[in-house]
């Protein structure tokens, strides 16, 4: 696991044990302890300083248009929002190598969505939907991320831009 390139010396740096363990714990909480995430079947497949991958498998309860049998737009927005929050938090964690566990726990408790824009590009057809994200700007208090949702065929279903409180 590496962090984004350091601007000063353009050398990738590896995640330290506190960073890696923090992200592992955050993924576990988001993956298993948030009731709404469990309801829609959200599964965090990958989460480290390099990125996040969140998967939702289609099931009848997630259909938003019964005539077309497509994913509900609210599920799309939820997945992208979760991806954005996780991406923003990993950007914060990657911003410094000297975070303490208590500092990161405090920051996690304030993590929240300030603004979210979703662009629906095509109907949510498919069986497996995967959300990924990238940091546009990682700030000390506010971060901005771009998120994408694709189906198992690689079709780009939607993208989002989110602004997140990280401290």
In angstroms, what is the radius of gyration? 16 Å
Segments where pLDDT lies below 50 for 5+ residues?
A: 1-12
Number of helices in the DSSP assignment? 4
What level of helicity do the residues show? 25-40%
Largest sheet: 6 strands, antiparallel
In the sheet with the most strands, the strands line up as: 1-2-6-7-8-5
- Terminal Cα separation, in Å? 24 Å
Descriptive report:
With 167 residues, this protein is an alpha+beta fold. 32% of the residues lie in helices and 35% in strands. It contains four helices and eight strands. It has a six-stranded antiparallel sheet with strand order 1-2-6-7-8-5. Strands 3-4 form a two-stranded antiparallel ribbon. The longest helix has 22 residues, at 73-94. It is elongated, with a radius of gyration of 16 Å. The two termini are 24 Å apart. Residues 1-12 have low confidence and may be disordered.
Compact summary:
The chain is 32% helix and 35% strand.
Helices, strands, pairings?
Elements: H1 17-32, H2 35-40, E1 43-48, E2 51-57, E3 63-65, E4 70-71, H3 73-94, H4 101-110, E5 112-120, E6 128-138, E7 142-151, E8 156-165
Antiparallel strand pairs: 1-2, 2-6, 3-4, 5-8, 6-7, 7-8
Helix pairs in contact: 1-3, 1-4
Which keywords apply here?
six-stranded antiparallel sheet, 167 residues, 35% strand, two-stranded antiparallel ribbon, 8 strands, disordered N terminus, alpha+beta
